[in-house]
């Protein structure tokens, strides 16, 4: 197996995505998680670009161990000086210099001749080499440069001491076979190429960044530059999790492996998405919310018999906490029965038939049947109340200033008692949660909230996914509502109900249903 080094540029190229900028504290937290994830090199920013970025690179160099830190610089002395200073404390470091090489960049952006560009590349690599031994050089827009000049500039920087040659597909133009073949030609024809490492850096304008990176690996590169969630300029960069999982899943075919600890993939992806306010598409491979969810009855049936029937990766190994079965109008009896049994219940065949009919009626009216709705259906089928609490009413007073206030009415289904509770907070969700918590018999921590808009226009409805923690375990509740605050309140209630049930703080008023395990 060839070991492929993953060079993470989430905090530099990724951060160049519009609206994705991070403050130094956020960068430090993410850099530590990247190190734990097992990336080999981190490019934490562009030191000359701002005092904040300088400070972030400097602190990451001091505080993050076990990875090589890369100081990014244009091929100018001031940038190199800043990158040298910012990375001084790193355990291991390299400098990364770039300079445009394509005619279109030279003519319209740099306004320099090829001779001038070669001269700058030579002198700046030689200058950087005075301070740091490991020098990476990137001829920007390499894939639109043409062999002759590309070979010339790469040969020149190798002669001056560059140790890593990165060939960026800056505008995401290359096709996989072209990109692979370009590396093969460079490695064959450029003098000094056997002494250096080669690196791929792909943008995703045509959705080919991962495919191009794999083609480069096949051609012999030992480093690939990636970003978490594929964030980056325009359509982004090669996605770390997609590439890592392609290599992991097809390692025999590729003869390659990475140092990624897959169990951290999902949490890092979530953290980066939140910190950058950059949502992940539902159907994004590996980390999208639908990536391991199945609604079709035939698929659900197959999965319940053997996960491998419709899944090529195990979400548990990626640290993905979600359930694989989504109940909707395509779901069959097998999946519904399975979900009911996950709540510790077994229904007779007759009860199952009644439930199935009611389920299909509800599923026809909405996209997904949530767990608390299923529990309601099971309850009405067996004439029992299975949910510990029902949120009967909630009202929130919100505005632009002052504290937000919420009042809620919640029924304790075991005793029939109704309680009205109220809470305040700096934001409406905080006020709602403060109020609702008062009725709960156990300590529940509000851990996470995901909010999605499910439609457009004034009638748009929102979906809330709330995760709570109780007794060292996580519980998720999902709800959809035209009033997003109601969606949050119901999702919170659903998550708390699971926690209360599982922590044994509720005895069901159950008739005619056998509560397995209770
Ligand atoms: O896309 C690109 O060309 C880059 C280089 C500066 C490496 O990000
Ligand atoms: Zn780039």
From TrEMBL:
Keywords: Acyltransferase, Amino-acid biosynthesis, Branched-chain amino acid biosynthesis, Leucine biosynthesis, Manganese, Metal-binding, Transferase. Pfam families: HCS_D2, HMGL-like, LeuA_dimer. CDD domains: DRE_TIM_IPMS. It comes from Paenibacillus vulneris. Pathway: Amino-acid biosynthesis; L-leucine biosynthesis; L-leucine from 3-methyl-2-oxobutanoate: step 1/4. This is 2-isopropylmalate synthase. NCBIfam families: leuA_bact, PRK00915.1-3. Residues 4-266 form the Pyruvate carboxyltransferase domain.
